[in-house]
Amino acid sequence: MKKVDDKKFLRGFLIFIIPLILLITALDRGGTDPNTKEMLSILLWGIGIMVLWGLHKHFKIPIIPAISWFAFWCWGTFTIIFSYSPDATLRFAIQFGSIIAFAWAIYNIAEKPLWKFFRMFYITVAIILAIGYIFLMGAKFGLFVGKHDMMFHFISTFYWKNPAAGYLILLIPILFVLTKSDPSKGWRIFYWILSITAFTALLLTRSRAGWLAFTIAVILGIIISFRIAIKYLKSVIVTLLVGFILAGVIMPPSWIVGRIAQIGEVTKEKPEEPVQERWMMLDMGIRAIAENPITGVGMNGFKIAYPHFLKSSHYLSSHLHNQYIQYAAEGGLPASILFLCAIISSVVIIFISARKSKQSILWAIGIGTLAYSIHIGLDFDWQFWGTTLPYFTLIAIGLRNAYNPDAFNIKTFWKIIFTILLVLGFLFSTIIAIAWTFHSKYEAELSISKQKELLKLSSKFAPLSAYFKYELAMLEKMSGNRENALHIMEKTHSLEPKNIQISYDYAMLLYETNPDSAIKIMLNTLKSAPYVLPEKQLELANYLNLSDDKKNAKSILEQMALNFSTDPEVRYSARTASFRYIIARALEYLADMESEQKNYTRADSLYALSHKLGCPRHNDQLAKIWAIDTPAPEWIVYELIDAVNVNDTLRLREIIADTAMVKLSPGVEIYLERIMDVKINMLEEKAKVSALVLKCQGNRVHSGFEFFDLVLTEDGWKIKF
Fold this sequence. Notes:
disordered N terminus
């Protein structure tokens, strides 16, 4: 039987399978879903194992990039000791390790000629572009109404304009070269058409950070190798001109020109809101680095740590929109320096080789990877594996063809070590993926007993996961098993003692058996993170009031009114939509205290403000961003109650999503006293509103909480029974 040529097989793997993997990753919401990353990690580790044992000879890697990337991964893994979230840091170790294994595999099989690989790869890019144009044109012509806050930007499968821009600036420079270098005329025409549509798409993202990064990279690329640049000058100019014209035809030119003019916002004393948010995140990152300059908060731990570094409740972001600062905050300055060294050394080697050898394709890869490297310092593309994996693919291809290494045999000892490392990565990825599979089943399960079993299985497969244990504890609490809930929550709190949500809920379970310790934990938590979870702060104030510590209770309530903005002019998010209603209750409690102290004038003003804030918000700013003109979910609840009272069946049919109909018994009236809470999930197009409702029947008046589920339709929010 004839032996299979492993090298030939792996070469075919590069040409056909790798582009397919990159396409599937990009199609899955840009590769942001945690479950998707776990599954991909298994595949990437597997590719590393296949190349290690599939090739008889391997190739030396340039020493500086090799050491820098490996040291960055090792240091990041080491930070698990100091991490705010050991589970998150473990997942960094598994996932980023799989990316390094993947890049190493690509490096070993990326031999010239490359044109076959690029043909398959850019067919997948064409698919991503086509999807983006379908979304954009569908929005323009009214085929897609709402459902997204960036309908009139080119976003394709990335959900957000900036990752889409990062994807495009990485790939456009190579297209410029392929329009002349591919041996087939038909493919050259294909690349030319694709370069025009890709550049047009870049303009239509309206991403200032993307435009800026692309411009800087192109200018530097021209400076580095003017001789190569001059060969493509005419075709590039034509492509850019046609791209600008097409972009102006698809969308009003003023939209693009206006965005270009807004780049100067960063220099203003009072810039527009997105720029202000960037400055806020930068400030938050600097404070995190100052507090933990060496070890950071643990890789991937910033999503748990960020409440400790907030100075405002206006914008709650767990990512700093600058990957270099993000890694400095998470892994300390050593991580950021190693990451920077790895990127700079990789890109510089590619550029140096391009300049010496006059290889246009290397020059284009250098520009694309440089543009992307700049862009991740301005936005959060790095979290989208749909952009990260193509970046590492091109880095690996660029280094292999720039370095032109000699083949060598890996010694048996080192091959065993590498095998153990790759297999461990594969096994850990598989175990974590199994844990999340059980969790997915838990989310779909209706039986509480089976939900508990599935969460216990998830916790066994992922013992460092505080998230699984937290959900199990809250499920036990909901079932009335408070003793079990407290026992589980103690373990959860020991895993992530600086997790604000866990600290509050642990203390609230502890309160029944040890109120003094519980209040102490809550006070320390509040002191550390005063700009998040106002509902928990309100409960703390209530506990203090019950403990006759009215002074501290009053102080917390007063500070809440200052820390959480209720100004209707301030843009709210899904996470802050309920703040005004929580503050309304805080002001009511504060008014009660003032009234007890006979400060009736102040009490009356607080009651009035509380009543005003407790009334339902009419305008829905979030839906407006999504291009849907609808009242807010809480206003729909108010309209439902009003329509039920007067038996307005026409209005009820308009605001109820299904065929249900609500009718009161004779002599019964209901009234909305106040909105208590609003939970909005724009991605799932759902909302939940809790309200205090008065039920009147003759002389009898009852008040109680009612919960309303809503769904977002093309006609706006509707009640779902």
